[in-house]
Specification:
Shape: globular
Distance between the termini: 34 Å
Number of strands: 7
Helix content: 40-55%
CATH topology: Rossmann fold
C-alpha cells in the first residue's frame, strides 16, 4: 500500500466544532492530507481559521449553533452548496457536563444530549442525501472512552450515556448504508489535552487519577486524534466501517 491512499486531494471535509481542541486537530490533519475544509463552530474564532489558511489549506467557515434543531441540516446544506459536494463529515462538536445524577439539572441534561447526540443524528441525516447521490461518502463521529467505561473521579452519567449512544449510532448507520458506499466510523478518545479537559488537568487530584489509570502515563494530543481521522476518512481504510477506534494510551485496558 502506498502513502497515496492516505491522501484526500479533491475531497471536501466538513468538521463541526473545528476551531479548537480535537476538532481543530482533525481539521488541520485533513487539510495536510489535501482536503478542502469547511469548518463550523458556534462561536467564531478567526485565529483558528487564519491558522488553517496560513498553513495553505483551502478553508471556509460557517457559524452554526448545534442547539438549534435546524442547525445541523442548514450547516450541511450550506456546506454542500458552497463546495458542490460533501465527501467527509466529521461530527466533533460536543460538550462535557459533570454532576451527581440525583441532582443533575434538566437544563444541563437537555443541553448535553442535544449537542452530543441529537445534533450528530441530524447532521448524519442531512449528509446522507448528498452522499447517496454521489454514491460515496465518509462519516466520522467522535465518541469517547466514556462510552465504554465509567470514568473516575468525576461523575458524568449523562455524558457517558451520550457517547455510548454515538457508538451505537455509528454502527447502525454503517450497517444501513454500507451497500451505498458510505462508510461510518467513530473515534473514542481518552484523555486529550484540550480546552475541555484543562480544568481537570489543573486539579492535581483529578489529573493524578487520570494519569495513573493510563498505562502509557501520558496525555494524548489533538494531533493523535487527527492522524487517526486521516486514516478513517481516506482510502487507506476503504474496507473499514462500523468501527469505534479507541485512542486512549491504554486507559480502557484496565
Amino acid at each position: 500500500m502506498t502513502m497515496e491512499r492516505f491522501r484526500l486531494d479533491g475531497k471536501v471535509a466538513l468538521v463541526t466544532g473545528g476551531t479548537r481542541g480535537i476538532g481543530f486537530g482533525i481539521a488541520r490533519s485533513l487539510g495536510e492530507a489535501g482536503a478542502r475544509l469547511v469548518v463550523s463552530s458556534r462561536t467564531p474564532r478567526s485565529d483558528a481559521i487564519e491558522a488553517l489558511k496560513g498553513a495553505g489549506f483551502q478553508v471556509d467557515y460557517i457559524a452554526t449553533d448545534m442547539l438549534d434543531p435546524e442547525g445541523p441540516r442548514r450547516l450541511v446544506e450550506q456546506a454542500t452548496a458552497l463546495t458542490g459536494r460533501l465527501d467527509i463529515l466529521v461530527n466533533n462538536a460536543g460538550i462535557a457536563e459533570h454532576g451527581d445524577t440525583e441532582t443533575f439539572p434538566l437544563e444541563k441534561y437537555r443541553r448535553l444530549m442535544t449537542t452530543n447526540l441529537d445534533s450528530v443524528f441530524f447532521a448524519c441525516q442531512a449528509a446522507l442525501t448528498p452522499m447517496r447521490e454521489q454514491q460515496s461518502g465518509v462519516i466520522l463521529n467522535i465518541g469517547s472512552i466514556s462510552g465504554y467505561v465509567s470514568n473516575i473521579p468525576q461523575r458524568q452519567a449523562a455524558y457517558n450515556a451520550s457517547k455510548a449512544a454515538i457508538h451505537m449510532l455509528t454502527k447502525s448507520l454503517a450497517s444501513d448504508y454500507a451497500i451505498e458506499n458510505i462508510r461510518v466510523n467513530a473515534i473514542a478518545p481518552g484523555y486529550i489535552m484540550t480546552d475541555m479537559t484543562a480544568d481537570g488537568f489543573d486539579d492535581p487530584v483529578t489529573a493524578g487519577v487520570w494519569t495513573d489509570m493510563t498505562p502509557m502515563r501520558k496525555v494524548g494530543s489533538a494531533d493523535d486524534i487527527g492522524a487517526a481521522a486521516v486514516y478513517l476518512c481516506s482510502d487507506a481504510s476503504s474496507y473499514v466501517t462500523g468501527e469505534v477506534l479507541v485512542i486512549d494510551g491504554g486507559y480502557t485496558l484496565r
